[in-house]
Amino acid sequence: MVESTFVNARPHPTLLPPIGVLRALATGFDRVAARPGLILPAFLLDLFLWLGPRLGVAGLVSPLASGLAAPAGADPALVEQFMTMRDALLELATRFNLFSALSSLPVGIPSLMAARMPGAAPVGPARGFDLPNGLLVLAAWLVLSLLGLGFGSLYHIWVARQVAPRTELITAIAAWGRMAALSLAVYVGALTVALVTMLAASAVAFLVPLLGLAVAFLGFSLLFWVSVYLIFTPHGIVRHRLGLIRSILESVQIVRWNLLGTVSYLALAFLVSYATNWVWSLPMEDSWYSLLALVGHAFVSATLLAGSYVFYQGRREWMLQIQRTAAASQAADTPPAAGA
Question: Which tens digits make up the pLDDT trace of 4-53?
């Protein structure tokens, strides 16, 4: 009698394939279409930046820009460059609105008008007041950025709840604090890397100009890849109530296991956002047709954020499933200890 060698074989659990990029985006679209109210935060913020009062810095920047002039006897091309720079600063000073800090990075409510900086509206010229000195500008920016992080945390929680309606999410206060810590770490880290890169590139360029460009490219490439690996840090904070450090480490792990998929989703999200923002910029600032642009931008932004939560959750579960299967297989294949 021949006994099969497969009688005692242990069946391995079937590994489900990870969620795809298009499926995650389509699921995000379905969630937003089922809950149209998700577009309200981005729409209302853009409406405020478009039709509401302005908090300007023209009184501070305009005198500095007006005093920008080329040295006497400078080359005409250099004089023209100084004039172009001065005109650009004056234009920025008249259009910049400090309330745009409500759309804080990295987790603020997305805004079309924060980047567009409208100088006109259908109801007439924008009204507001300018801050007279740099300390007031800095204080206002800090306060508005913190408020923006709070609103952005609520926005993330609301979107995540539609993706996982039966899951207990982080509280708004805890999310606000952790998002503020994340933003501080991001700003300090990015500024440090940028300064070190510029100093190193300048020093190397003094010796070999072409090599200086290579150093600058490497430095800013480092910033890009760090951003990619940390992209799911807010998701871990909101979705699984993780602390900042643990959420950063888990984001790095998820991206490491799903690098191609993560880059593909980010590339698709960038292309969709870039293409639609070009469409939303077509209406004039003083035209009521811009309302349609605000609605469209809010819908696309909510869809991309919801899709990112769907992608994050699906890829995280897939990664954990592989790790559990590998651990179980390793434990089953380990021979029992002597005398057991």
Answer: 444 444 445 566 788 999 999 999 999 999 999 999 999 999 999 999 88
Alpha helices in the chain (DSSP H): 21-34, 40-51, 58-66, 76-95, 113-116, 134-163, 172-207, 209-229, 233-240, 244-257, 259-280, 290-333
- The CB-side HSE value for 62 (13 A sphere, CA atoms) comes to 12
| Helix, strand, or coil (residue 335) | coil
The span from the CA of 92 to the CA of 6, in Å, is: 75
φ, ψ of residue 221 to 5 degrees: the values are: -65, -40
Look at the block and give the residue holding tokens 């510029």.
198
Phi, psi of 107 (to 5 degrees): -130, 25
Question: Which residue type occupies 21?
Answer: V
DSSP 104-119: -TTTSPP-SHHHH--S
Closest CA to 293 of 120, 39, 102, 55: 39
Tokens of 82: 């100084």
Structural contact between residues 118 and 50, judged by C-beta atoms closer than 8 angstroms: yes
Look-up of token digits 């360029």: 205
